[in-house]
Amino acid sequence: MSTSKSQQALCNAVFKLLRPLCRLLLRNGVPYGAFTDIAKRAYVDVAMNEFEVPGKKPTISRASTITGLSRKEIKRVMSIDDPNDNDMVARYNRAARVVYGWVHDASYSTTDGETAELAFENGNPSFSSLVKTYSGDVPPRAILDELLQVGVVEKTDAGKYRLLERAYIPKAGEAEKLALLGRDVAGLIATMDANIHRLNEIPYFQRKVFYDNLPQEALPKLRALLADRGQQLLEFLDQWMASHDRDVNPNVEGSGKKAAGIGMYYFEEEISEESEEKAQ
């Protein structure tokens, strides 16, 4: 079978993105057989739900044609339970809204503008009232346990709770971090797919800065700069988006229901003399 230049470029790109993914899978004890079933399930799910013929119901025969999998294999992988991280992601969203309110709502700040230390129930305001305002009918204890577990909140000697981070960033919850992996990386790939195939009249924002000859001593300064400036930008965007989100602000008007987000991340890699020679 002949391979077009675009297909070859795509295969090369997939190989590169699979390397860190395979590293992560191996570190967590996921064998190759389990990965192939996941990949087959994803192929079938996309074929059945996104590549149907207009006016016709999706069929196993068509899915077999476009995926290259046999009808028998498609039936088998369709019987595998759907990977579902909705509960983890829902917990993430609820906790993130609570942290947002704690940071931005003046009712939960001290007179000098710092986030206040909150008792669980006693006092006005309290942590329970914060959860009720920003996360609806979710039990406050469940949100508190989540924030304590991931290191965003700590209990003081006085028995109150202190916010340690201005954003909900899981520190200790490995399962939560892995659940977000699928959401965050999938969003980046979907953005690149939309831009490559011009699926929107105006391309989605996609930028990166990269230099490959930095001294080791510059990296701690770069990480600190990103932590400062990047956090400022994300907090500004977070506040703007929250003011337009109906879960946070029920008075927002408009049609439809869309999800949107902005992601930032830092990476670094070692550049060896051998890799430099290959690039030349």
Structure described in brief:
With 280 residues, the protein is mainly alpha-helical. The protein has helices spanning 5-27, 32-50, 60-67, 71-78, 86-104, 127-135, 140-149, 174-196, 218-243, 273-279, and strands at 153-155, 161-163. Helix 2 packs across helix 3 (60-67) and helix 6 packs across helix 7 (140-149).
What does this molecule look like?
The chain is mainly α and 280 residues long. It has a domain at 86-163: Arc Repressor Mutant, subunit A (Orthogonal Bundle), CATH 1.10.10. Helix content is 54%, strand content 2%. It has helices spanning 5-27, 32-50, 60-67, 71-78, 86-104, 127-135, 140-149, 174-196, 218-243, 273-279; strands spanning 153-155, 161-163. Strands 1-2 form a two-stranded antiparallel ribbon. A hairpin with a 5-residue loop joins strand 1 and strand 2. Helix 5 packs across helix 7 (140-149) and helix 6 crosses helix 7 (140-149). The mean pLDDT is 86.
Give the tally of β-strands.
2
Coarse structural class:
mainly alpha
Shape label:
globular
* Low-confidence regions: none
Q: How would you sum up the major sheet?
A: 2 strands, antiparallel
Order of helices and strands: HHHHHHHEEHHH
Distance between the termini: 31 Å
CATH class of the domain at 86-163: Mainly Alpha
Mean pLDDT: 86
Q: Strand arrangement, largest sheet? A: 1-2
Radius of gyration of CA atoms, rounded to a whole number:
23 Å
User: What portion of the residues fall into strands of 2 or more residues?
Assistant: under 5%
Annotation field: number of helices:
10
